[in-house]
Amino acid sequence: xxxxxxxxxxxxxxxxxxxxxxxxxxxxxxxxxxxxxxxxxxxxxxxxxxxxxxxxxxxxxxxxxxxxxxxxxxxxxxxxxxxxxxxxxxxxxxxxxxxxxxxxxxxxxxxxxxxxxxxxxxxxxxxxxxxxxxxxxxxxxxxxxxxxxxxxxxxxxxxxxxxxxxxxxxxxxxxxxxxxxxxxxxxxxxxxxxxxxxxxxxxxxxxxxxxxxxxxxxxxxxxxxxxxxxxxxxxxxxxxxxxxxxxxxxxxxxxxxxxxxxxxxxxxxxxxxxxxxxxxxxxxxxxxxxxxxxxxxxxxxxxxxxxxxxxxxxxxxxxxxxxxxxxxxxxxxxxxxxxxxxxxxxxxxxxxxxxxxxxxxxxxxxxxxxxxxxxxxxxx
Length: 380
Fold this sequence. Notes:
Helices cover about 50% and strands about 15% of the residues. The protein contains twelve helices and ten strands. The strands form three sheets. Strands 1-4-5-8 form a four-stranded mixed beta sheet, covered by helices on one side. Strands 2-3-7-6 form a four-stranded antiparallel beta sheet, with no helix packed on it. Strand 2 (about 135-140) and strand 3 form a beta hairpin. Helix 4 (about 60-75) packs antiparallel against helix 5. It is globular and about 80 Å long.
């Protein structure tokens, strides 16, 4: 890493440890999105870091975003997830495929954390199968009228602007799918109650409902037939949100496990003197370092213009499955303490478990890797 990248990593780590970690457990127990943390990050210049300076950002790369998200997740995974929404796919899509008026309207507000963004793709029968989106947007003069519903929308309860995938034409599959931007408070648009999940319970995830919701025609972000453009944006976002959260959770779990083994004594000596337990710590550290190398490498490749679907999928899968292994092992090493809500071990595991489902399941990403191998576009 460059000196600037190390400074970003260390500064965000110190800030998150001091300001965000103390409230992480309460955000989880109370299902409360810690929005104040995003305002703190904005005050220190860490929101909108990938946006060009002309839109209020700092124009940095994906690796810098990965470093920020990883350090946030070490202290508060809910903060990291909310950050990856309002500093992630939706503003990235507006930047790369939106009109200049849309960029001017939304990006500076995102960069200052004055407004928050969400990405809404999933439906009851459309998650990994984007081509089966049924929520419909029909042109009506100077507006589009939207009807349908969305599930699993992270940050829904706090977001101001939603990127919504909709069916614009009757063409089958992704050919008929596009995207519109919908603002909170638009007539006919409502946000459901917080969804009760195993982990990441402070992310404001909820259902979206559209009943004759009228949005201005200029809010069309992506016309039908151009879904590949949007999915390319999502491919980049897949490396800056989900995988570094896994890295942060695993690193936090390992740190607490090390401290527990040093503090806890059994049979007249600290647990840390047990060689079998030492080996478990070593395996956890190796797993984290391997995942970090994959994630950083994928981010750097995209920054250098060498974007690879397979490389991103490999990094995501490994980080997802690593985080489950490491947080589960940390829980085991903590014994009964690992199961208690008074300690962070079980929260780390709960937060990590869903990451292999979100942003594309690990099974779907394995399909992507195999497809690239069979086409010859990815060579090991």
